[in-house]
Recover the amino acids of this structure.
């Protein structure tokens, strides 16, 4: 069974893990109601996406 001969340094482990960081969600204002929503997602407030009503809102 293969076993490492020497311990990897903390610097080397950190370099390998440098791409594992979480990125913040991209938020854009909804053109209809103005609330911040993630891109390519139906607005949770008004239910519109790409200028069309996808979800009927209860008012």
């Amino acid at each position: 069974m293969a076993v490492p001969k020497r311990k990897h340094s903390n610097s080397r482990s950190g370099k390998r893990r440098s791409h594992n960081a979480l990125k913040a969600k991209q938020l854009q204002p909804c053109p209809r109601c103005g609330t911040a929503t993630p891109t390519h997602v139906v607005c949770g407030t008004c239910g519109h996406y790409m200028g069309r009503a996808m979800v009927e809102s209860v008012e």
Notes: The beta strands are 27-29, 36-38, 48-49, 52-53. The longest strand covers residues 27-29. Residues 10-16 form the longest helix (7 residues).
